[in-house]
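To whoever is covering the structure queue this week,

Two jobs came back overnight. Logging them here so there's a record in the thread.

Job A:
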Amino acid sequence: MEKKFGLIGSTLTHSFSKSYFDEKFFREGLRDYHYELYPLDSVDGLKKLLDENPELYGLNVTIPYKEQVLKFLSDIDPTAKNIGAVNVIKIHNGKLTGFNTDSDAFYETLEKWFPQISDAKALVLGTGGSSKAVQQALKKLSVPFEIVSREKGKAAHTYESLEKDGTPISDAQLIINTTPLGMAPNTNNFPPINYELLTSHHYVYDLIYNPARTMFIQKAEMHGATIKNGLEMLQFQAEKAWAIWNN
């Protein structure tokens, strides 16, 4: 019996998810399992997608629908509800249940990579669904953090305020980009922070994995920072999604 899985988002040309699951299904001999990309102009297109694909058993959710998709869910896992964002949907008997595997995947990769620096502080760039998952993981690791937003009133800092006072950048040992700035195909974009303030004492994590070396990462590395992209997080997240779909 054919089983379909897939990814919804606005622009999906950057995604490695299809190749990841295609290889997984081939390796494990799951010939009737298929993974597709479903770009949606609006999250409201999800209903039509489900109607036209009754063989769908699960979906991954990416930018910008991790929060918008909540209104379509029949149920939501407590962790995802607490975070306020969903990146995995399980479809069973016509009911949609939402989960968040981003937070645990980020937690596990960060715990392995970021040393236990006493009094470490983090600066989180972005306020969307991915940012909320990162914030949850930082709380679990007891790493205090501040958030940067494009808009006043949504976070402790704006990019404009950081231009006037770069102290939050200097003081943070860990800086995490949760925005899509720099994601393929717009690879020349990057968060507008003062990279001159970065040093060898900084750890810079970009959730983007395509390209592997974003401008954000390149600029940070030029100033001696230790860098990491989001590929390992994607792999962790994908395996956690697979476990949910098959539970």
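Job B:
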Amino acid sequence: MTANAVDPGFVPSTALSRGASLRSRLTLRLFARLPLPFTKSVEEGARTVIRAATDPELEDVTGAYFSDGEPTRSAPESYDERIRRRLWDVSAGLVGVSPDGAFEPNE
């Protein structure tokens, strides 16, 4: 089993903001209508997700972060052992498993 993180980019024309505040939804609608250089279409945003899920070359890649279709370094905070441990502990508590299970940081 592999597990990777994927950043599709800023794709304002999705329904992912449906639970957001009215102000946030209106702001996203505005961004969706403007030809901004940092926004992506649904198809463009999906390319990275689809590649990470289906590319045979990535079959044995795990613990990676993908952006714009390629593995790249994630935010510096993601390499901070204290922050990673806290995230692991909180996540384990939320799903009801022991946080001392199989925490093995992957650089």
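Note for Job B: The helical segments are 22-33, 42-54, 81-95.

Please reply-all if you pick these up so we don't duplicate work.
Q.
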